[in-house]
Amino acid sequence: MTSLRTLLCVAILAVPGAPALAQDGPRLFQVPEGCTAFLTVQSRSCLVSHHWSCEADPEGTHWRATLDQDGAFYLSFTDAEFRWLRSWSLRGGGTDTLIEPEEDPASLSELLETGRDTMVFSIREETATGTSQRDYTGFDRLTGESVTVDGHELQVTEFAYEYGTPDGPRRTEGNQFVHEGWGLFFGGLETVTLPSGETFEGNYSPMEFAEPGESGFLSMQPLYDCGDMMSALGDDTLWRVSR
């Protein structure tokens, strides 16, 4: 199965000192046999991500791996509408799976056609301690503004979503970016409000893009905001960053 091959491949790269694709020069990210990488993204908060698709997967689906200074730590699998089908926490060992059919599926095409998309869906979370369910509600909206990042025009979105916890709702909101040609979401300025009322902010905005043949393509070294900073990313935030 492509998913198993991909998971094993990326999990190896989560280990510092794992073998590189090339013998000389900087370490390069590897994708499984039968798969083709098409984009590398350098983002704020010391993140670099790689996007690829595989011949054996359904049309329109693609993979994304997120790396920090210590290697790959998160893997996601989405479709052409950017429905979050599955994701893996490579260090924590958890797996999240979309429960289908959804009440109101996320739809990138609806967002691009109408300027707004709502969503109501549930995720099954499996960890070493058991299985649970998170029920999400939210929306994406095009603001009508656009920005140019590394020569690529991105549409600006406003978004918000939340899910319930035993202590109350956890909410994430802010702005992100969409590239229609790639069919991808990218992170931005985001605020998470915990059930206690405590908030924390993050900036996951894209800074550089590299396609095949360009400098930095498949680089495993994040470039922006690195050092001693600690990431406040949670699994739900990672889903948004991967969109």
Average pLDDT number: 89
Structural class: mainly beta
Largest sheet: 14 strands, antiparallel
Number of domains: 1
Radius of gyration: 17 Å
CATH class: Mainly Beta
Poorly predicted runs are 15-23
Distance between the termini: 24 Å
Provide the succession of SSEs.
HEEEEEEHEEEEEEEEH
Which outline best applies?
A: globular
The helix content is 10-25%
DSSP summary: helix tally: 3
Strand content: over 45%
* CATH topology term: YmcC-like fold
Annotated CATH architecture = Beta Barrel
Q: What's the count of strands?
A: 14
Blueprint (SSEs and pairs):
Layout: H1 2-13, E1 35-43, E2 47-54, E3 62-68, E4 71-78, E5 84-89, E6 95-98, H2 108-114, E7 116-127, E8 130-149, E9 152-165, E10 168-179, E11 184-186, E12 189-193, E13 199-203, E14 206-210, H3 235-241
Describe the structure in your own words:
The chain is built from three helices and 14 strands. The chain is mainly β and 243 residues long. The chain has a single domain (2-241), classed as YmcC-like fold. Strands 1, 2, 3, 4, 5, 6, 7, 8, 9, 10, 11, 12, 13 and 14 form a 14-stranded antiparallel sheet that branches. The longest helix has 12 residues, at 2-13.
Features:
14-stranded antiparallel beta sheet, 49% strand, YmcC-like fold, 11% helix, 14 strands
Summarize the structure.
The protein is mainly β. Helices cover 11% and strands 49% of the residues. The protein is globular, with a radius of gyration of 17 Å.
